[in-house]
Amino acid sequence: MVYNGFLGSLPKEIRLFIAVFVMILSVGYFTGLLFVQQTESTTPAGIEENYMGNEDDEDAEVMKFKKGEREMLTIVHTHVLSISFIFFLLGGLVWITNAPKKLKLFLTLEPFLSIILTFGGIYLMWSGISWFRYVVVFSGILMTITYMGSASLVLWQCIFPNKPQKVQ
To answer: Which of 24, 53, 109, 145 is the most exposed place for a label (fewest CB within 10 A)?
Structure first.
């Protein structure tokens, strides 16, 4: 089955549909990142404070309390499921672009590792392994870079289609 470059062979209307989907998906993804920025969880210290609280900090502008176990499980559960679904859909589109197989493999598998490291890391940090805050920052950044690469690749090939090539 030839799937490398299949996206470019689709009719213009279907490519437009896919492009609009990826743009709206991106609005949702980056709105989530804006929320992370609002909670000041973009640094290792900010992530730790967001989940572990800051009741002991008398100089804190906003009082934050340690999240409970039920809340942590809800956060991890909903994010792992929803973000996995986002990357599954986007990954399916990446596989039908005209790009090297190794690049597609990276763009479609790495996000799942980052999801586990990010949200598993948040839970482990909350459980008391504080150095996981660095893992969370690194994996979150890598997940976002991968998302941007995948979305850009799909959008580019929807706008500028190539002829399909044989699988390498």
So the answer is: 24
Q: How far is CA 62 from CA 23, 53, 55, 58, 150, in A?
A: 34, 10, 10, 10, 36
Encoded tokens for 45: 């210290």
Q: Which two tokens stand for residue 41?
A: 């969880």
Taking the model in full, what pTM does it have?
0.91
CA 36 – CA 13 distance, rounded (Å): 35
Span 44-64, pLDDT tens digits: 988 998 899 888 878 878 888
Nearest alpha-carbon partner for 121 in 89, 143, 105? 143
**What does the alpha-carbon distance between residue 98 and residue 107 come to, in Å, rounded to a whole number?**
13
The span from the CA of 20 to the CA of 163, in Å, is 21
**Integer angstrom CA distances of residue 27 from 16, 18, 105:** 17, 14, 24
Cα distance between residue 11 and residue 79, in whole Å: 34
Burial of 32: CB neighbours in 10 Å, binned 0-12, 13-18, 19+? middle
Residues 6+ apart with CB under 8 A from 16: 158
Q: Which two tokens stand for residue 66?
A: 């340690």
